[in-house]
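We emphasize that the prediction below concerns an isolated chain of 290 residues; any contacts that depend on oligomerization or on bound cofactors are therefore not represented. The input was used exactly as deposited, without trimming of termini.
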Amino acid sequence: MAGAKNKKMLKLALFGDHRKANVAEAISQFTEFIKNKHKIIISCGIEQCSIERLKEADFAIVIGGDGSIIAAARHLYRTGVPVVGINVGKLGYLAEFSVEEITAFLPQLSKGDVTIEKRMMMICKVLRNGKTHFSSTALNEVFVAAGPPFKMVGLRMFVDGQLLGECVSDGMVVSTPTGSTAYSLSAGGPILSQEMKAIVITPLCPHSLSFRPIVINPESIIEIRGVRFNEGTTVSVDGQVSMKLDIEDVVQIQREKREFLVVNNPMRSKWETLATKLGWAKTPKYKGDL
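Result of the prediction step, given as a token string:
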């Protein structure tokens, strides 16, 4: 539970990309609706808000799609401020509320009568010559992609210093439970309940029938080392932050101690979201069905 009961006015941080017409329109609608009800203490683009100002907010309102939520997570996880995602994008798996739903939900939010889910995050570092050359947090996944000229790459993986295996493939995805329904799922990985604390390692098109996704302890430290790379072999975090790799680089991934806080939409269950957004467990269409 979050916030005090019978709270009269919320202090809100508002995120959104005003350059997108649908986002700008939704921001305008939301701002007009909460006028004289709640206070927006800071309004900015996804990566432009001051961390110190964000810490003063009761909730962060992120208006956009799942990509906006993922980008905001890299800043908001440091503040402990729960996020309310308003979807004006395509999928809206992380951004759980529609504009209409959030207006109906605000009285409940102002009373603190909400369920807040703690989402596990990871931190990815690229070690070059023993020093950290790149570092970023990940809400969904870290993946090493073959890149141009798009020949298969050879990767050697270690878990807590022990060799897990060597894989010739198009790359490797290391995901959180939140990310298990993203790139990892598309690559054949399992769906994990978002409350779980675990890490999934999923190969991308492995040159082997026996290399299958594996779920490991969230406290493990994973290292990916190159055996054979292409010129464009890259490490990417949530598909938003990336860096080209040298063959001697070590990609190190482990759990981030802090978590990303998300306000659940009480009008939908998490399993309903999985079914309606991703079409999971849909019944087959039989002969005679309309």
